[in-house]
Amino acid sequence: MDAKERILKSMNHEEPDRVPSFEIAIDNLKVYEHYGLKYGYQGSGDLLSKTYDLVKGDTALLKKFVDKSSKVADTLTPGIELFLKAGIDLFSLYLTNYPVEYTREGVIDDVGRVMHFKKNPADNMDIYYYMRGYFENFEDYESFPKPDPDDPKRESVYKAGKLIEEKYKGKIYAMPSFCGLLESSWQCFGLQQFSRMLARPKIIKKIFDERGKFQVELIKRLIDWGEDGLVLLGDDYGFKNGLLMAPRNYHKFVFPWVKRMCETAHKGGLKFFLHSCGDITTIFEDIINCGVDAIHPIEPTTANPEFNIFKLHEKYGDQIAFVGNVSPQDLADQPPEVIKNYVKELIDKLAPGGGFILSSGHSINPAVKLENFLVMHETLKKYGRYPIQVI
After folding, report:
1. Residue 229, helix vs strand vs coil
2. What span, in angstroms and rounded, lies between the C-alpha atoms of 71 and 105?
């Protein structure tokens, strides 16, 4: 059974040959070095600043130089090879948030986010980091070029990912992924300015409608390109203590578009996979009702004890697949035995009958201990075969 078959079978609440695995990102030098690979962003910050100085701050020339010198396959290969060597089935292939302008510190991307390369103090690793919104007001947003689903780079990235996937003969599945509807709507302004703008519902609706239409159209392009697996929307709806907006605003601005994305995906034969951090208990049933097929990561460190993957699975396990949720904090702080026991519990309670994919409770960040990352996947290999028998 190849990776895509394994994932789709699990999402259909059927038992594949083994429990699939996923990470939304691995940003950890120790993990890359363990497998003899170079982290994709490493050195990017220094190279960008040196090139900026070389072209004397000419940002148009800088963009031309960077775009010409970067090859799509070269940027994708290290991450896919790492997932392959670690035995992870599912890889996010991002088709949005591409740079439209380069600065000395980073980029401005196609939804209006200012992103910088930052050095992790512990190991000097380059982290691609959200700094702030590029827009100060709605007029700035209106004058900025809107993301185009027909930007040829999106198809180029998609096809490059599929060629790499084909090269490895189905051992890994490159899932087309978008950065979110809500996130792209608030991050381009910053949360404080966006919160003030919520008092102007006509303007906010226009922003959400433009973002939503773009993502629906991109799903249609995927279907035209031949995609027949699944699509990920990465869109945080909460934080550790609750939702980012009042529930009525999700119903007014967000869920109509999520439902339309799901309907478009399903009509084209695709599954729809949602990543959302934070405590989303109060809108969990709404997410299911939109048609979402799988949810990641059921963040295990929220303040709400009811937002618990085992409790949610008991209530909704026949309606949605669960992807998660080994705590990154535990992966950084706890001994390997704690990780092993929690992975065993996840497999034992969630995997029988399908509908479960193992992942961290967000991503593999720089603080995660290598030994804990390894024991998570060793435990999956040992106990994740069907029929499930965790002793």
Report:
1. coil
2. 21
Give the number of other Cβ atoms within 10 Å of residue 224's Cβ: 10
- In order of their start, the domains of the chain are 3-27+71-97+136-383 (3.20.20.210)
Neighbours of 251 (CB within 10 A): 12
Other Cβ atoms within 10 Å of 154 Cβ, number? 23
pLDDT at position 252 is 97
Rounded Cα distance between 264 and 129, Å, is 32
DSSP alpha helix (H) spans, 317-369: 328-333, 336-350
What pTM does this model have?
0.95
The separation between CA 167 and the C-alpha centre of its own chain, rounded to angstroms, equals 23
Closest to 216 measured CA to CA, from 135, 321, 290, 145: 290
111 contacts 190 by C-beta, under 8 angstroms: no
Q: How confident is the model at residue 73 (pLDDT cuts 50, 70, 90)?
A: low
CA distance 149 to 249: 26
- Listed in order, strand segments (DSSP E) in the chain are 90-94, 99-102, 106-109, 113-119, 126-133, 173-179, 230-234, 238-239, 242-243, 271-275, 294-296, 321-326, 356-360
Distance (Å, whole) CA 13 – CA 363: 24
Reported in sequence order, the residue ranges of 9-165 that DSSP labels E, i.e. its strands, are: 90-94, 99-102, 106-109, 113-119, 126-133
Query: Are 193 and 207 spatial neighbours (Cβ–Cβ below 8 Å)?
Result: no
pLDDT at res. 360: 98
pLDDT tens for 146-160 read 999 999 999 999 999
Strand bridging mode 238-239 / 242-243: antiparallel
Smallest CA-to-CA distance from 210 within 185, 190, 188 is with: 185
Instruction: Evaluate whether 298 touches 312 at the Cβ level (below 8 Å).
Output: yes
CA distance linking residue 101 with residue 90, whole number of Å: 30
Angle between helices 309-316 and 336-350 (to 10 degrees): 10
pLDDT digits (tens, 9 = 90+) for 110-138: 999 999 999 999 898 999 999 999 999 99
Report d(CA 132, CA 140) in Å as an integer: 14
- Which residue, 217, 204, 74, is CA-closest to 141? 204
Tokens 């990154």 correspond to what residue? 328
Structure tokens at 384: 């994740």
